[in-house]
Prior knowledge:
heterodimer; A: globular; B: 4-stranded antiparallel sheet; disordered N terminus
Amino acid sequence: xxxxxxxxxxxxxxxxxxxxxxxxxxxxxxxxxxxxxxxxxxxxxxxxxxxxxxxxxxxxxxxxxxxxxxxxxxxxxxxxxxxxxxxxxxxxxxxxxxxxxxxxxxxxxxxxxxxxxxxxxxxxxxxxxxxxxxxxxxxxxxxxxxxxxxxxxxxxxxxxxxxxxxxxxxxxxxxxxxxxxxxxxxxxxxxxxxxxxxxxxxxxxxxxxxxxxxxxxxxxxxxxxxxxxxxxxxxxxxxxxxxxxxxxxxxxxxxxxxxxxxxxxxxxxxxxxxxxxxxxxxxxxxxxxxxxxxxxxxxxxxxxxxxxxxxxxxxxxxxxxxxxxxxxxxxxxxxxxxxxxxxxxxxxxxxxxxxxxxxxxxxxxxxxxxx
Amino acid sequence: xxxxxxxxxxxxxxxxxxxxxxxxxxxxxxxxxxxxxxxxxxxxxxxxxxxxxxxxxxxxxxxxxxxxxxxxxxxxxxxxxxxxxxxxxxxxxxxxxxxxxxxxxxxxxxxxxxxxxxxxxxxxxxxxxxxxxxxxxxxxxxxxxxxxxxxxxxxxxxxxxxxxxxxxxxxxxxxxxxxxxxxxxxxxxxxxxxxxxxxxxxxxxxxxxxxxxxxxxxxxxxxxxxxxxxxxxxxxxxxxxxxxxxxxxxxxxxxxxxxxx
Lengths: 371, 261
């Protein structure tokens, strides 16, 4: 390190760039992995564990895996690793459930349109955002029409929904509708109007007091006792309602935490300007509260998406349900690892994407007012 | 505003009708604590009033009652002919005419400086956006920070933030400006720039009520200085008399403490 030899008169020192950092991978290793005895030992243990885990895993999953075979015996005859041929064989049923095969293009279409509809909602510096948002509002009806049929398309009963498609339908619907409901509940809980407040509190506390499975059972069995005899409505619809209500209670509490983090001065500044309640909520309070709540909200949504697999309990076959019933097939008997790994991969991709989006969103909103 | 005026006409007090603010026999309690005791105050149009006193004396509470950020339990507050009650319409009508500048600025951090200033006119007064922006730039120029219009409050210094807060309130074209210790959270170098802004504002004839410890400001600008202690108005006088001939012991004690250092 060379020292700055020149001295400057007081008040005349120019701004200078910082000294060049020291590079080199050896230095990085020394600083990060071997900086102290404990770190060094931990690094060695980690290396050992990786050595024990990764090669066998790579062998099983990739190197010795079998992609084309007719049944389990054939798989075993070819190689010893994962029998991905099983997943390949079952792939369409894992994804579409029991949706009639000639109509599966409708499921594909609704998924592609879902991605299109999500883009203007999730990102704001894209061209044609306004028409995109209008499409996003129309999308739920469009998707309903595509998936359920009617009005020119052949109808498909909801009992034929299954697999990843079912998880996605329940998850996306739950997420999309529980966010606005949760926000309203959070505002209701903070309200000064006693009736609104007690309804919000009772609703939130009741929903949070019972497991989702209980609510799903209520949806599938008990609801019939409360409705006039002879009326039933679609099981999937009941499940969607329950999942949405469940999630909205949790979102309400997350948002309430965000609302409490807003300094009182913000409410006062909004009030002293003459803004009405809904104006100050929409323009001042909620933008700030929701920004603070993003980690909690996305966390709840990730949990919700994984909870969609609970519909298994009331007889709707989601991806896990179909995976498990596939394992019972005589031809592929006992190939549980492949099934679980694939299903885990499906959930991981979905949940990790949500997680990365959350990080992106937080970073984007932070630029606005970094102190 | 029409319906507010007819409602007000029926509760018009007998005091002088060119009083912009009339506070008559106002009391306030926080629970059992009697925080404001028998406040009587009349403010004429164009008057500049400085309110001083030890902390906990109720000064901030009193001016926050004027725009209903705090509720009073007894007595009357009449602002611009409209009585302050629980009627939301009247409260909103009063708040449109009363601007407030806070000790901690309370700028909206997620909006730019320009958006902070145009929010009120656009959403409360239904001003078209272009006009609101023009007004905002005019007031930002008056407080001498037009170049900051597209920055976020978090990027500005304390003195600049407070000047934006003043411009934001002025964009609503209020008839009364309330200042709640506007310079108490500022570094000494920035206090001057904010006080200069307030002095210029005073010279335009704005009715101002200012809670502050800046006695220099009071001497320069105030028409009246009010001393509060323990929730009561102890003394109220023009600045010269107030500082030269304080009447009450408590006033004398306070002045010796605040002007001593």
